[in-house]
Amino acid sequence: MKNMTSKDENQQTSISERINSLSHDKRKLLDSLQKNQGENGEIYQPPQPSPPDESVHTSREDQTHGGQDAEITTNTSHWSPLVAIKASGSRPPFFCVHAIFGSAFPYYKLALNMPESQPFYGLQSPGLDGEQPSLKKIGDMAKLYIETIRKVQPAGPYYLGGYSFGGWVAYEMAQQLCKAGKKVNLLAMLGTAAPMTMVNPYFFEHMDFVFQYTEDFNKLVLNSFLSDEHRMAADLNPDMNLAGKAYPPLLSPLYQVVEANNRAQFTYVPSPYPGKITLFVTSEFQKTCGLDPTLGWKLLATEETEVHLISGNHLSMFHEPHVRDLAKTLSACLRRSEK
Question: Which CATH superfamily includes the segment(s) 73-197+269-338?
Answer without folding.
Answer: Alpha/Beta hydrolase fold, catalytic domain (3.40.50.1820)
